[in-house]
Design goal:
The protein is mainly alpha-helical. Helix content is 74%, strand content 0%.
Length: 136
Protein backbone atom coordinates (compact mmCIF):
# COMPACT_ATOMS: atom_id res chain seq x y z
CA UNK A 1 0.00 0.00 0.00
CA UNK A 2 1.33 3.49 -0.78
CA UNK A 3 2.42 5.60 2.16
CA UNK A 4 -0.18 7.88 3.76
CA UNK A 5 -3.04 5.89 2.22
CA UNK A 6 -5.89 4.80 4.40
CA UNK A 7 -9.63 4.52 4.09
CA UNK A 8 -10.22 7.73 6.03
CA UNK A 9 -8.40 9.81 3.42
CA UNK A 10 -10.25 7.96 0.67
CA UNK A 11 -13.53 8.81 2.39
CA UNK A 12 -12.62 12.47 2.76
CA UNK A 13 -11.66 12.63 -0.91
CA UNK A 14 -14.96 11.02 -1.86
CA UNK A 15 -16.96 13.50 0.18
CA UNK A 16 -15.04 16.44 -1.28
CA UNK A 17 -15.68 15.08 -4.78
CA UNK A 18 -19.37 14.50 -4.02
CA UNK A 19 -19.85 17.98 -2.60
CA UNK A 20 -18.07 19.56 -5.54
CA UNK A 21 -20.15 17.44 -7.95
CA UNK A 22 -23.31 18.79 -6.32
CA UNK A 23 -22.43 22.39 -5.49
CA UNK A 24 -20.49 23.53 -8.58
CA UNK A 25 -23.10 22.54 -11.21
CA UNK A 26 -25.77 23.77 -8.80
CA UNK A 27 -24.21 27.23 -8.85
CA UNK A 28 -24.43 27.40 -12.64
CA UNK A 29 -28.05 26.14 -12.77
CA UNK A 30 -28.85 28.60 -9.95
CA UNK A 31 -27.37 31.46 -12.00
CA UNK A 32 -29.45 30.39 -15.00
CA UNK A 33 -32.62 30.28 -12.91
CA UNK A 34 -31.76 33.60 -11.24
CA UNK A 35 -31.44 35.27 -14.66
CA UNK A 36 -34.88 34.06 -15.76
CA UNK A 37 -36.39 35.16 -12.43
CA UNK A 38 -36.82 31.91 -10.49
CA UNK A 39 -35.68 31.56 -6.87
CA UNK A 40 -34.25 28.15 -5.97
CA UNK A 41 -31.49 27.16 -3.58
CA UNK A 42 -28.01 26.24 -4.81
CA UNK A 43 -28.11 22.87 -3.06
CA UNK A 44 -31.55 22.11 -4.49
CA UNK A 45 -30.31 22.99 -8.00
CA UNK A 46 -27.23 20.83 -7.50
CA UNK A 47 -29.19 17.85 -6.23
CA UNK A 48 -31.70 18.19 -9.08
CA UNK A 49 -28.83 18.35 -11.58
CA UNK A 50 -27.17 15.25 -10.08
CA UNK A 51 -30.46 13.32 -10.02
CA UNK A 52 -31.24 14.34 -13.61
CA UNK A 53 -27.77 13.20 -14.68
CA UNK A 54 -28.12 9.82 -12.93
CA UNK A 55 -31.60 9.14 -14.31
CA UNK A 56 -30.60 10.24 -17.81
CA UNK A 57 -27.50 8.04 -17.67
CA UNK A 58 -29.54 5.02 -16.61
CA UNK A 59 -32.14 5.55 -19.34
CA UNK A 60 -29.39 6.14 -21.93
CA UNK A 61 -27.70 2.89 -20.86
CA UNK A 62 -30.94 0.97 -21.37
CA UNK A 63 -31.78 2.68 -24.70
CA UNK A 64 -28.26 2.19 -26.00
CA UNK A 65 -29.13 -1.41 -26.87
CA UNK A 66 -32.18 -0.43 -28.94
CA UNK A 67 -32.54 1.19 -32.36
CA UNK A 68 -33.25 4.45 -30.53
CA UNK A 69 -29.49 4.82 -30.03
CA UNK A 70 -29.44 6.92 -33.20
CA UNK A 71 -31.43 9.73 -31.57
CA UNK A 72 -30.12 9.08 -28.06
CA UNK A 73 -28.29 12.45 -27.60
CA UNK A 74 -31.47 14.42 -28.28
CA UNK A 75 -33.60 12.02 -26.28
CA UNK A 76 -31.14 12.14 -23.37
CA UNK A 77 -31.21 15.94 -23.33
CA UNK A 78 -35.01 15.93 -23.32
CA UNK A 79 -35.07 13.42 -20.45
CA UNK A 80 -32.55 15.58 -18.55
CA UNK A 81 -34.73 18.66 -19.07
CA UNK A 82 -37.87 16.78 -17.99
CA UNK A 83 -36.27 15.53 -14.77
CA UNK A 84 -34.81 18.99 -14.05
CA UNK A 85 -38.22 20.56 -14.70
CA UNK A 86 -39.93 18.11 -12.40
CA UNK A 87 -37.48 18.42 -9.51
CA UNK A 88 -37.20 22.22 -9.61
CA UNK A 89 -40.93 22.89 -10.19
CA UNK A 90 -40.42 24.97 -13.31
CA UNK A 91 -41.74 24.76 -16.86
CA UNK A 92 -40.00 22.95 -19.70
CA UNK A 93 -39.08 26.23 -21.42
CA UNK A 94 -37.63 27.62 -18.18
CA UNK A 95 -35.56 24.46 -17.69
CA UNK A 96 -34.28 24.77 -21.26
CA UNK A 97 -33.45 28.47 -20.81
CA UNK A 98 -31.70 27.84 -17.47
CA UNK A 99 -29.63 25.04 -19.01
CA UNK A 100 -28.62 27.18 -22.00
CA UNK A 101 -27.77 30.16 -19.76
CA UNK A 102 -25.75 27.87 -17.46
CA UNK A 103 -23.85 26.58 -20.49
CA UNK A 104 -23.07 30.14 -21.61
CA UNK A 105 -21.93 31.08 -18.09
CA UNK A 106 -19.68 27.99 -17.94
CA UNK A 107 -18.22 28.94 -21.33
CA UNK A 108 -17.53 32.53 -20.22
CA UNK A 109 -15.94 31.39 -16.94
CA UNK A 110 -13.71 28.93 -18.80
CA UNK A 111 -12.65 31.62 -21.29
CA UNK A 112 -11.83 33.99 -18.41
CA UNK A 113 -9.78 31.29 -16.66
CA UNK A 114 -7.97 30.47 -19.90
CA UNK A 115 -7.11 34.14 -20.36
CA UNK A 116 -5.89 34.48 -16.78
CA UNK A 117 -3.74 31.35 -16.87
CA UNK A 118 -2.55 32.07 -20.40
CA UNK A 119 -1.30 35.51 -19.39
CA UNK A 120 0.27 33.99 -16.29
CA UNK A 121 2.10 31.39 -18.36
CA UNK A 122 3.31 34.01 -20.86
CA UNK A 123 4.75 36.44 -18.34
CA UNK A 124 5.51 34.57 -15.13
CA UNK A 125 6.93 31.17 -16.03
CA UNK A 126 10.68 30.74 -16.23
CA UNK A 127 12.25 30.12 -19.65
CA UNK A 128 13.01 26.50 -20.49
CA UNK A 129 16.49 25.21 -19.77
CA UNK A 130 18.71 24.91 -22.85
CA UNK A 131 20.02 21.45 -23.71
CA UNK A 132 23.63 21.07 -22.70
CA UNK A 133 23.77 24.39 -20.82
CA UNK A 134 22.42 23.78 -17.33
CA UNK A 135 22.45 26.68 -14.87
CA UNK A 136 23.52 25.81 -11.35
Amino acid sequence: MPPFFDFLSLGIGFFVFLLSAIVLPGVFIWIGLKIIGKERGILRCGMANLAAFVITSFVAFILHFTPLAIILPLLGFLIYLYVLKTLLDISFIEAFAATIIAGVVIFLVSVALLLIFGVWMLFFTPPPMQMGHPRF
